[in-house]
Design a protein that fits this description.
Number of helices: 10
Strand content: under 5%
Largest sheet: none
Number of domains: 2
Helix content: 55-70%
Distance between the termini: 50 Å
Shape: globular
Order of helices and strands: HHHHHHHHHH
Structural class: mainly alpha
Radius of gyration: 22 Å
Number of strands: 0
């Protein structure tokens, strides 16, 4: 189908566009599972390799690990090492057909894999339906996929990789310059708002971090949180940053209390803040103006 006809189809049929993006989101979700699992391993190997250059050799050098990237080697069962065939790698469907077990050795496959795929598909379709066919939807999908990957990695490793946060920030700034604000859409914002938003996002959490450390002699968050907040500022502009921080802090506080009460979690145990920032940033991207207006009406600041 010619591109012009496809664009017309998606413009005139929002459900068709959302359905197509749902299928795309399922496939992207499968790739995000790879990113969530492999990227921290790749980073750790790089850090160890760089550290080894500065440390004296102690005995025999360990054998070099198998080369690992986001594309190689092929996905395989972590237990029996059997390569995963194409039909076994269909998002969500394969997990259901295999009943959540490896086809070769019967080892359980984590439920998180189909959940990430399904969540990515549903959130992608939501973005497509909300924004409609066009540049804002493309921008919203990029932000959504990056936030899903960051959430998964931060939950597992309490790490927000520069390889995702910084490109996300620069993409927001670039979109602000090249695409610019579009009537009726919250993203991209103007270049001025994006630049101020990125700077304000980083500096605000940097100040909170150092104030908390001076008062308690502890580190309350990591530098990855600053960079993620800067990336959200680049995409959303500075005006929505207070809403993002309020939503993320409130959600983190509520869930943190529930985990302490219901699961007996140690109060001193660190809780990753990235997932709360990501969730609040996504909600602000989708419904920020409405949430902000509602809050101002409830507080009596807007008439």
């Amino acid at each position: 189908m010619p591109l012009n006809d496809l664009a017309a189809l998606y413009n005139n049929n929002p459900a068709v566009f959302a359905g197509s993006v749902f299928l795309l989101g399922l496939m992207i979700g499968s790739f995000l599972n790879v990113v969530i699992y492999r990227l921290p391993i790749i980073l750790e190997r790089d850090w160890r390799s760089q550290a080894a250059e500065w440390l004296p050799a102690a005995g025999d050098a360990p054998a070099a690990p198998e080369r690992l990237s986001l594309s190689t080697p092929r996905s395989a069962c972590p237990v029996c090492k059997a390569p995963i065939k194409a039909w076994q790698n269909i998002p969500v469907v394969s997990w259901l057909l295999l009943r959540g077990r490896c086809a070769s050795c019967g080892t359980k496959i984590s439920l998180r894999y189909p959940l990430v795929e399904l969540a990515t598909g549903l959130l992608s379709a939501w973005v497509a339906w909300h924004f409609g066919f066009g540049a804002p939807a493309a921008c919203g999908l990029l932000v959504t996929w990056a936030l899903i990957a960051l959430t998964g990695i931060d939950i597992d490793h309490q790490l927000l990789p520069d390889g995702i946060t910084l490109p996300l920030m620069w993409a927001g700034l670039t979109a602000a310059v090249i695409v610019g604000p579009i009537a009726g859409s919250p993203i991209p914002v103007s270049a001025r708002d994006a630049i101020i938003g990125a700077a304000a996002g980083y500096v605000s959490l940097w100040l909170v971090f150092h104030a908390f450390r001076l008062i308690t002699s502890k580190e309350g968050m990591g530098y990855g949180d600053f960079k993620l907040f800067a990336a959200l500022g680049a995409w959303l502009g500075w005006k929505l940053l207070p809403l993002v921080i309020v939503l993320s802090a409130a959600t983190g506080a509520v869930l943190g209390i529930l985990m302490i009460v219901l699961r007996g979690r140690d109060r001193s145990a660190p809780i990753p803040f990235g997932p709360y920032l990501a969730a609040a940033g996504w909600l602000a991207m989708m419904y920020g103006d409405g949430l902000l207006s509602g809050y101002l009406r409830l507080s009596g600041l807007s008439r």
